[in-house]
Structures are given as C-alpha cells and as structure tokens.
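<purpose> Linking amino acid order to shape
<body> The protein record starts here
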Amino acid sequence: MRETPPQGIYKVQALDRAFAVLDLLAESDTALGLAQVASSLQLHKSTAHRFLMVLERHRMVERTAGGKFRLGLRLFDFGNRAIEQYDLRERAQPHLRRLVAETEETAHLCILEGAHVIYIDKIEPARSVRMITRIGASNPVHCTSVGKAMLAFLPEERLNEVLRRTRFERFTHRTISTVEALRVEIEKTRRRGYAVDDEELEEGLRCIAVPVLDAQRLPVAAVSVSGPSFRVTAQKLPSIANHLLQCVRGISVDMGFISSGRGNRAVWSA
C-alpha cells in the first residue's frame, strides 16, 4: 500500500513549480504561450494554467495582448527593493550605532511592506531592560511609530491603499482602533515632525520614529528609538527626536538622497 505524501510536500512542490515557471519566463527572450510553458516544464496544460493565473494575480507574471506570458513588473520592484534594502542597512549601521550611543535606547531600522512594517536592523544599548524584537519580524502599521512615520509621507493614493488593508487589531487599551483616529495621528505626525507609539503595541513600551525619505520625499524606511516608558518619557521625546533627525539626515546623505552641503528636505524640525 502506497503512503500518501504529507500535504506539506505538495506545497513545496507547488512552490518549486511556480519558481520553475518564473525561471522559464526569465530565460526566454520572448513571451511564451500556455502550451510552451506546459511542454517545457512537462506539466499538464491545466496545471500550468493554474500556476500562471496565481502568478498573474500577484503581478509576478503578465499577459501580452496576444495572450502569451512574460515576467511581471512586480519582480522588477522586488529586485530594486532588495538591492536598496541591502545597501540601506549597510549604510545606516554607523548612524544607528551613534544614535544608540546618544540615546542609550534601542534603535530599529524598518521598511513598509503592505500594511505591516518589517524590522531589517536592530541595535541595542548595554542596558538591562531591552526590546524583545528580532530582525525580520513584522508588526502592523497602525500601532507602531515607524509605521505611522512612513504613512505620514505616502502619496494619498498609496496611503488609502494601506489603510484599506489595515486590520485595526487591539494590543493594548491605547491602540488606535479606527481609520479616522489613525488619520488624525498621521496629521499630528506631519505637524510635530515625528511619530510616537505611546504604549500602543505593548504596555510599558514607548517608541518614537522619523522616516528616511528619498530624493522625491517618499519614505523608503524609518528609524525608531524604543525603550520602557519610564525611561523614554514624554519630556524626553523632543530631545530624542532631534537625535533621530540627525541620524536619518546622515543616512540620507550616505544613500545619495540629499547632498551633504545643503539642508535636508527629508528632515523635519522637531
């Protein structure tokens, strides 16, 4: 009697086949028809069609006017983001280390992915009470200072898209729970020059963040300072914000977003 392979095996095979479709399209100089894809990968037409439809839905693949398939532009976006993020993390590290030395609190470097923020770097101080976060983890935009900092500089169309995808999950009694309240907080962030997570994600934790803006003043990342609320007090926020502003200015100069010889348009006055 033959054993039925575990369901996980099928999922891995499906991923392998999806990547095989992408590899095939990448190697071809022209768009390919369904029959060509199925034949080249030794798949039934119906199976190849299912993979292509899923990839098309996620904009990894697009269809030409003649009904053939080629790589989608979302892959171009992913490639650019991957290169940018790698370079960004490397160039940001000395500035993050200086920020941690100045504030004696934890610094995070985050990017926006859908309605979540992804932590791509973290530097901690030599103190006993530290942040329990890890690189690669994610959190929702509505209850994080880095999320709100980046939302404040998104074009209106992109902002609306993110807000539509946001699930306003409550983590503490302070968590923002409606789109209207979040819009008020975003406007407040623009006016005062920094975003704050005031124990909205975790009780006893306060965070403050400023975005890193590119040459078009669009957010590519955000830097935050986080610590226990008894240390990161409301009175200290303006001072920490000034350190953050200098940090993101240094990152922007090193990334080539602004020149070192002029004022940083990507930095607010705190």
Summary: The beta strands are 61-63, 69-71, 106-113, 116-123, 138-140, 195-198, 205-213, 219-228. The chain has two domains: 7-71, 78-255. Residues 1-5, 262-270 have pLDDT under 50 and may be disordered.
